[in-house]
Amino acid sequence: MQQLGQRARQAARHMARASTGAKNAALLAIADALQRSEAALRAANDRDLAAGRAAGLDEALLDRLLLDARGIAGMADGLRQIAALPDPVGAVDELRARPSGIRVGRMRVPLGVVGIIYESRPNVTADAAGLCLKSGNACILRGGSEALHSNLAIAACIAAGLEAAGLPATAVQVLEITDRAAVGLLAGLAEYVDIIVPRGGKGLIQAVMQQARVPVLKHLDGVCHVYIDDGADPDMARRIVLNAKTHRYGVCNALETLLVAAGEAAVLPAIAADMAEKGVELRGCERARAQVPGMTPASEADWYAEYLAPILAVRVVDGLDKAMEHIARYGSAHTEAIITRDLGRADRFLREVDSASVMVNASTRFADGFEYGLGAEIGISTDKLHARGPVGLEGLTSQKWVVLGNGEVRT
Amino acid sequence: MQQLGQRARQAARHMARASTGAKNAALLAIADALQRSEAALRAANDRDLAAGRAAGLDEALLDRLLLDARGIAGMADGLRQIAALPDPVGAVDELRARPSGIRVGRMRVPLGVVGIIYESRPNVTADAAGLCLKSGNACILRGGSEALHSNLAIAACIAAGLEAAGLPATAVQVLEITDRAAVGLLAGLAEYVDIIVPRGGKGLIQAVMQQARVPVLKHLDGVCHVYIDDGADPDMARRIVLNAKTHRYGVCNALETLLVAAGEAAVLPAIAADMAEKGVELRGCERARAQVPGMTPASEADWYAEYLAPILAVRVVDGLDKAMEHIARYGSAHTEAIITRDLGRADRFLREVDSASVMVNASTRFADGFEYGLGAEIGISTDKLHARGPVGLEGLTSQKWVVLGNGEVRT
């Protein structure tokens, strides 16, 4: 593990000075290698699938594990898209002249070594490696044990592509130890790893957080809120609530608790009808239930719940302040939206709600790196330091100060 | 401690939405209160000084503890300067229109609650509180026990100023528990504290790092390097080395190890003469000693040393790559400078040296928030995430995503 860390650190120094051209050439060569190796990749994946079936994995897990022709083409396309993104590394902010005579600016540089810990989907191997490569970082990838053969086959293509472009193959290393202990080992390599990105369920993320001795880029929960403000357009409110709750249930930017200003509670029967059509269960406070007979009563636990399922908590609140209090108390600082026509309250919501993404008159489902224009996404962070919300290439970099002088000294 | 944390969290929500005008009014009112309260401040400081003398504190420590008329005026001036700085909070980056119809940007927001742990200098109380206040944060300050009366007297002026401006006095709380256990308590308040800034010696910073359950903004060492490149102007090299080493010895951006390209080793006798005149001891590698008879031999430990004293380690290296290898191996990622006439090597040094500040033809002593134009400095960080190098108001803020829509939903 120490050796692996040392190799990554060495590769990181090489990657930090790699040209944009070499990095893009590697990304395209990896994409080609993946498509050329379809037979080998599918054979490796078949071994994982057979072992998974023998171990009694359920269909959902086997489905996530599957790497078919479409999945392979998808990985290759993803890498080509990353190659087309601008290179963040080396960009220097405005250089400002200081009274002392020096000029001062900031240069964007890679973080160094990124550890990625993920679960069954083998495509994460190519996706995460591509983002680290483009941002000039080395990475150590620890995928799930059930996908090991698939991941190693993908790693062989990555190594071939890196070497074809004259870059060190050790810039992307896939751990062959896949048990839980490897999580602790990787998370504890403070000397050789600059940041850990866990991608997976809450259990995995909590395990990484507990063991990490380096910063972790993560979000634990996505208890997202929509607040329907006094005087909101009821049709817009219905449309956004429907989309935020039912577009996809199992995602972190899905709506989980709907807050409605008391004056607009009359919109609830229509929303309840929309939800009933989609098979979504409503759980409401007393005032919400007064509008929709038969609604399940919400308990305190419902306000904290990230259902990731066709269930929606509903609470009637006395205006904006109470809505923001609810969000501050029960929310997870991920994504919240207000539906309003009032400029002042929109502005207060934007300024005062302390979440990674705050929205006016839009669906929480937009909280996503592609939708925000980042081109790609390594993860979503609900922490305040470094990167917040959807994190793309820039979040895998840092800025150092550069000073240009002509022999100046301090007096 | 929990109550204190809760009060800080509540105050932080208030401060986050405070107007620039109110924050500046508070800063000016605190400055006035400090100057009006000179007698009370000096009486409180006398109590600390008397207790310090009785406890046998040495003169250097008593000197740091002293708060005289000049010190009080200095604190007040510092606060007025912070009031004059631009408010980082609320600024929104370019809003970009996305194909979906939403507009996306980032808004700068306070971090929330900042914990500051410091040692004997009481002026840090006003200085740190002022920076936190201007950046819209609440703060909890834990100063040294030897300065408790002084700190509480300053805190009374801060509370008066906050209240005069209609802001919550609990936005700045000074801990009355000053033993080491308080460090652990504050560093462990993960629910109520967003970041800890330790200001003081290495022992304090290590204690905070070990106990912190929240991010720590810090630098542990400043093992700064100057590298004299092949073909460098020898006069410029002498001037910069003299300034970087001898301008002040006890500061983190002072030069500690001088690296000289083998072709330029002949500059060493002149540098040795400059250093001898200032009483600086040189400790050199074999090749450095060949140039300067009588130089003390350097041991491996000297390359790692942050002397903070009139001692300079000197090593002759075979060009840029070896210099950068030395810095990567022994350095502390704080500040390094190259003296060169070669554009290509200057560029490689800037890009490849992985330190918070990298300089061309300038003294390492410039690594400072005021010299960089930040207007003020809460500390210097050698970590890569969030803020790097000198940290001013911006480093006490974060950016959240804002999305403006007209009813858009995701398809």
From TrEMBL, chains A, B:
Annotated InterPro entries: Ald_DH/histidinol_DH, Ald_DH_C, Ald_DH_N, Aldehyde_DH_dom, G-glutamylP_reductase_CS, Glu-5-SA_DH, GPR_dom
Domain Aldehyde dehydrogenase: 6-263
Protein name: Gamma-glutamyl phosphate reductase
One GO CC annotation: cytoplasm
UniProt-annotated location(s): Cytoplasm
Organism: Immundisolibacter cernigliae
Gene name linked to the record: proA
Keywords in alphabetical order: Amino-acid biosynthesis, Cytoplasm, NADP, Oxidoreductase, Proline biosynthesis
A Gene Ontology molecular function term of the record: NADP binding
